TrEMBL record:
It comes from the Bacteria. InterPro entries: Acyl_CoA_acyltransferase, GNAT_dom. Pfam families: Acetyltransf_3. Residues 12-175 form the N-acetyltransferase domain. Keywords: Transferase. This is GNAT family N-acetyltransferase. GO terms for molecular function: acyltransferase activity, transferring groups other than amino-acyl groups. The keyword S-adenosyl-L-methionine does not apply.
Length: 183
């Protein structure tokens, strides 16, 4: 059976993550670069990952989707809108493109745009925010390219590999997204 293409772009599509993806998710969670870029410090078992995926499917305050290539249906990462606040119409977004071979090809930019369109156009959000670590300059560039603005810095918020790093808070408003003033 062909995978469901929930949100589709030219290079990637987003689909619901399933229990069948647990082994893939587990393996990618232990990729050294992915762990560093996301600040992941804890260890998880396959069973914990399966429970996490199952729990996310029941969680109305988040939308967790797998990112796959349109050409070949290859899973390359995941993206989530989470902590959805329906009263204030805001949420945060996170994304991970796994493996250096999938980075720098525009996949993350397209996935972000698909998810922002969903967040503002379907979920009726007003503000979407994210945090990115100061050493992840490539991600900062992508977020700014998509239209996110820097709001502040949480100084030395991450302790990773014997060092402290700043966390940059960024956001995009619905009006900024809709104005088309996005590179």
């Amino acid at each position: 059976m062909a995978p469901v293409r929930f949100l589709e772009g030219k290079q990637v599509y987003l689909r619901p993550i399933e229990l069948a993806d647990a082994d893939w998710y587990f393996a990618n969670l232990y990729d050294k670069d992915t762990r560093r870029l996301t600040g992941t410090q804890k260890h998880f078992s396959r069973e914990q990952i399966a429970k996490y995926i199952e729990g996310k499917s029941q969680d109305s305050s988040s939308v967790l989707l797998l990112i796959a290539t349109c050409d070949g249906d290859i899973p390359i990462g995941d993206i989530a809108i989470q902590d959805i606040d329906t009263i204030n119409r805001n949420a945060n977004i996170r994304i991970a493109i796994n493996s250096g071979s999938h980075q720098g090809k525009g996949y993350g930019t397209e996935a972000l745009r698909l998810m922002l369109d969903y967040g503002f156009g379907i979920l009726n959000l007003h503000r979407i925010e994210l945090n990115v670590f100061s050493f992840n300059e490539r991600a900062v560039h992508v977020y700014e390219k998509v239209g996110f603005k820097r709001e502040g810095v949480q100084r030395e918020a991450l302790f990773y590999d014997h060092k402290y790093y700043d966390s940059i808070l960024m956001s995009i408003l619905e009006s900024e997204y809709r104005s088309g003033d996005i590179s």
